[in-house]
Write a sequence for this structure.
């Protein structure tokens, strides 16, 4: 039996008929084509699939799509606005808060939730706040720096001009 | 990994949830936070025939002061418990433990009732429920915690019985939960909770048996005036923990003693 699931994802409304067993992350990637949300571990540990549901960070591999009925979701694709990177994305770029980049969408969404709860976190609070995300390149030092930078820029300081970049281009 | 197919229904009241569980039979499961259930379903270690989603039952999401009791609704998320000023004031040990469950993403979904009903030996709330003599309230009856946890993943709950509330005593004296694990978000390899209450100590142990354990011998020794480090030597009395990938039985017993000492000493500092 299929179930209707109507969601608002990154401000756009979607409606699908899905099997109850369809995981939310598969719904996002396969039905909605939003492949920026990654599947890292499939065991609810790595946080690569982190998205926001009604503003709260969750691991989208550990919800069924039917649970998103009526919810407002934000994925990594919803962070940049009008071709301009979100300050957290910009900070990950500027501080090189990544190596291979696979875990990055999850880290950015987890950082977004962290900063929404605590706009000026200490280093310890950042590390604790990102405990649900794993980086297997062990790039944590720069990830923490990126979140600190994002906290500064989001705290009122303007994102420096000339840092605009399309999301899909490489870092070099 | 894709879970096996199942039927799915949303309940808007506890009565409706109970009826749905009856309809689907004993292989149906309640879906609350889902953060133990869904991982098991993905691995197909659990293959429920139906899920009854109780996330829409808003009256199960509450924290209420009730005289010298603290009533936590079954659907109350860890993040809510962790940040509740009521819990911090009335039972700060519970707020501390809630903040040590999983990670932010897990705490945004996982629930009090889910942890209690799932009864994982490594679950943190069952230890508190047992050592503090909490009551587990269901849609049918009230079950004292010491009669609730029966075996690994096994409780006194019947097939159509749903946890609605967990009722803890108020206790805001010295307290500490020491959770030993390799990574912050892991389950406890061993956990020890200490709470000063009514002039005595309550000591509870996580993941050293098939159910939570109350360290009666440690409590008795403290009552007789033993120092924390002396009393803690009794923490492994009568324990027969199973070994697992992370720890042998001997190591778990060692941890029970060491962490009990730390929990009491750190509690005395709170």
């Amino acid at each position: 039996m299929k179930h209707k699931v109507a969601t608002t994802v990154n401000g756009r409304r979607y409606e699908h008929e899905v099997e109850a067993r369809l995981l939310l992350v598969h719904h996002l990637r396969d039905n909605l084509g939003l492949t920026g949300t990654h599947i890292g571990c499939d065991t609810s540990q790595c946080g690569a699939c982190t998205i926001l549901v009604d503003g709260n960070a969750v691991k989208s591999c550990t919800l069924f799509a039917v649970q998103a009925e009526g919810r407002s979701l934000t994925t990594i694709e919803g962070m940049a606005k009008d071709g301009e990177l979100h300050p957290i994305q910009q900070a990950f770029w500027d501080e090189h808060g990544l190596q291979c980049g696979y875990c990055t969408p999850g880290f950015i969404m987890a950082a977004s939730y962290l900063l929404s709860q605590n706009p000026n976190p200490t280093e310890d609070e950042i590390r604790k706040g990102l405990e649900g995300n794993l980086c297997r390149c062990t790039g944590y030092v720069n990830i923490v720096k990126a979140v600190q930078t994002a906290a500064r820029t989001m705290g009122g300081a303007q994102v420096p001009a000339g840092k605009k970049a399309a999301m899909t281009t490489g870092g070099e | 990994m894709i879970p096996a197919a199942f039927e799915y229904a949303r309940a808007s009241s506890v009565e409706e949830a109970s009826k749905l569980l009856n309809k689907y039979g004993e292989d149906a499961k309640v879906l609350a936070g889902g953060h133990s259930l869904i991982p098991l379903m993905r691995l197909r270690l659990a293959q429920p025939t139906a899920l009854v989603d109780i996330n829409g039952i808003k009256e199960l999401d509450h924290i209420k002061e009730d005289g010298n009791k603290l009533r936590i609704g079954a659907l109350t998320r860890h993040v809510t418990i962790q940040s509740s000023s009521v819990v911090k004031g009335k039972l700060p040990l519970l707020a501390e433990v809630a903040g040590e469950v999983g990670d932010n993403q897990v705490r945004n979904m996982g629930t009090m009732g889910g942890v209690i009903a799932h009864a994982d030996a490594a679950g943190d709330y069952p230890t508190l429920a047992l050592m503090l003599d909490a009551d587990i309230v269901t849609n049918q009856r009230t079950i004292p915690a010491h009669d609730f946890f029966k075996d690994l993943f096994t409780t006194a709950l019947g097939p159509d019985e749903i946890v609605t509330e967990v009722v803890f005593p108020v206790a805001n004296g010295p307290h500490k939960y020491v959770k030993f694990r390799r990574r912050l978000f892991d389950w406890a390899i061993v956990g020890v909770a200490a709470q000063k209450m009514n002039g005595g100590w309550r000591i509870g142990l996580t993941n050293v048996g098939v159910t939570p354990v109350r360290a009666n011998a440690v409590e008795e020794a403290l009552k007789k005036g033993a120092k924390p480090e002396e009393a803690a030597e009794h923490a492994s009395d009568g324990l027969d923990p199973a070994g697992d990938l992370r720890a042998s039985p001997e190591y778990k017993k060692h941890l029970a003693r060491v962490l009990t000492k730390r929990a009491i000493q750190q509690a005395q500092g709170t």
